[in-house]
Amino acid sequence: xxxxxxxxxxxxxxxxxxxxxxxxxxxxxxxxxxxxxxxxxxxxxxxxxxxxxxxxxxxxxxxxxxxxxxxxxxxxxxxxxxxxxxxxxxxxxxxxxxxxxxxxxxxxxxxxxxxxxxxxxxxxxxxxxxxxxxxxxxxxxxxxxxxxxxxxxxxxxxxxxxxxxxxxxxxxxxxxxxxxxxxxxxxxxxxxxxxxxxxxxxxxxxxxxxxxxxxxxxxxxxxxxxxxxxxxxxxxxxxxxxxxxxxxxxxxxxxxxxxxxxxxxxxxxxxxxxxxxxxxxxxxxxxxxxxxxxxxxxxxxxxxxxxxxxxxxxxxxxxxxxxxxxxxxxxxxxxxxxxxxxxxxxxxxxxxxxxxxxxxxxxxxxxxxxxxxxxxxxxxxxxxxxxxxxxxxxxxxxxxxxxxxxxxxxxxxxxxxxxxxxxxxxxxxxxxxxxxxxxxxxxxxxxxxxxxxxxxxxxxxxxxxxxxxxxxxxxxx
Length: 477
Ligand code: 4AD
Ligand code: MG
Description:
With about 475 residues, the protein is an alpha+beta fold. It folds into two domains: about 5-100, CATH 2.40.50.140; about 125-170 and about 205-465, BirA Bifunctional Protein, domain 2. The protein has 15 helices and 17 strands. Helix 5 (about 125-145) crosses helix 7, helix 5 (about 125-145) crosses helix 8 (about 275-290) and helix 7 (about 250-275) runs antiparallel to helix 9. About 35% of the residues are buried. 4-amino-1,4-dioxobutan-2-aminium adenosine-5'-monophosphate binds near residues 237 and 444.
């Protein structure tokens, strides 16, 4: 007799074989039918027990959430809703679950409630599906880059540099409360701290990834990043995972091609590897949409959206064109935007991004050539002297999925830019070295992994696509 998981058993094409398996009870009805799930698939397997020959004591312990082991015969199911079932000959309760205390009942729970029980929510259909898709997506990410000769680089998590220059870093220190040494001018003396300087958790691995691109040609990171931005939105986390490819001798056009091809490829591979979970999530979203007013409902189902993005070209539009479109848009003229667009140079808010993607173009959009003033110091200055070779990939329902750029490879231009933006040249001496020794055109981007998981699973809140979300006022678990 072989131990198989539910996913394997449900695929079985021969009956009457003896099987044994372990899992958790989802439901138990009529003292006979156990819906058993072991996490290998969204689907449960029905286990039919011979209740006349099962002690009362055991029957009582078959409750939602209990861990059990069963042995039995695989049979064609008599009942509706499943093709196979297990006729149980032996059952063992491995771990009880007191039904009066177990928070995850076989009914619909709100996502808020489940967030408070994040240690148990992965036992539900929705979260198990989301987390399996997340896992497969991360594999697809590595597969995409590995098959194209990118080198996976692990960049430091503790760093002295603020790559994005936005001042949104979490400090990393070993100083105890009130015990930090103070310098003569009254500041904390980080020269006495663990690293001998002020350090923080990284906001991006890009700058270090560039060192690898300039030696190995193609590199990518896929690791945790941290941002202390106080934004309580459905798209921001304080701790999130970012994928950052970086490629030597590639310009911005190549960067746009790479981002688009990458996203389409991973979506295509998920459409194949996560069929059952996506079918479930598609149904879930369709149900959820039904509770919305007609006008707010999505025109496409989840699967249609995924196929649409995988099959259609992203629209490429310059920032300047986008500003024209926005300036002349209905919501702008009717003063419906919270931040009206009146002139070139304005930073785009998510309401503008979503207008472009959801109302105007109705497809993913790559905006490029942004004003230098609203972008990071490392982006390559265009000949117009006022725009940089930046790009953002904007997605329906999500907004910014990707931010990237062709990097400033000219030493003097970069130094001038760092001075103008108050970036410490001494701290980034090694970054400047890349421009001194064998500098070359190079580009890369960062994709927020959770936003990709959000899009793929149709989950509205980013807190529901990462196992244990870190957000302002929340670091439970
Ligand atoms: O646009 P960002 O800030 O770009 C960078 O960090 C560059 N260094 C990337 C690069 O060129 N290598 O962030 C990149 C992406 C965003 O487009 C977004 O998807 C995601 O990271 N992101 C967040 N995701 C969740 N929570 C947050 N607080 C995020 N901030 C950015
Ligand atoms: Mg950005």
